[in-house]
Amino acid sequence: MRDRSGDYPLRTMEVAVTVNAPQADVWHHLVAWKTQGNWMLGTSVWAIDSGEGVDGRIAAFTGLFPKSRKLGFIDYMTITKWEPPRVCDVLHTGKVVRGTGSFEVAVVSDNISKFLWREDVEVPFGALGQVIWPIASMFLRVGIILSLRRFASYVEELNE
């Protein structure tokens, strides 16, 4: 797949975190879209329709002041794979973020799960985006790592 600006490849970002909670509990909190802002840095998420099942739609505002949706962008997503409590894949269809994403929750043991976040995205802004990507991706990766750690703590506290 090529991005909308020419001959540039998709860029992959993959981050995983271990969560001390059963798979079903991790899944439940992961797909509770309206509470993702409790753990995802600079993001507010909501369901456009049911937000569940194949063809369900969700949106996420990412930027400064996510609750007021100012100074950022909206990422529209359509669910392409829905296999609770294991996999939710999405197609990003917004103006800024395009590509695919995947949330996977794997069983490690009865009370331990692994949450894998994967994105295969088209870098926006053409050649400029390609030049900026190595630096921007480092900040993005750190933000996702921090967010997934917050998610693990969030789920673990709710399961105490």
Tell me what the structure shows.
By secondary structure, this protein is α+β, with helices and mostly antiparallel strands. The protein has a single domain, classed as Alpha-D-Glucose-1,6-Bisphosphate, Chain A, domain 4. Helices cover 26% and strands 39% of the residues. The protein is built from two helices and seven strands, in the order E-H-E-E-E-E-E-E-H. A seven-stranded antiparallel beta sheet has the order 1-7-6-5-4-3-2, covered by helices on one side. Strand 6 and strand 7 form a beta hairpin. The radius of gyration is 16 Å and the shape is globular. The N and C termini lie far apart (44 Å). The N terminus is likely disordered.
Number of DSSP strand runs:
7
Given the structure, what is the number of helices?
2
How does the major sheet shape up? 7 strands, antiparallel
Q: If you average the pLDDT, what whole number results? A: 91
The SS-based structural class is alpha+beta
| CATH superfamily placement | START domain
Structure summary:
The chain is of the alpha+beta class and 160 residues long. The chain has two helices and seven strands; from the N terminus they run βαββββββα. The protein has one domain (22-158): Alpha-D-Glucose-1,6-Bisphosphate, Chain A, domain 4 (2-Layer Sandwich), CATH 3.30.530.
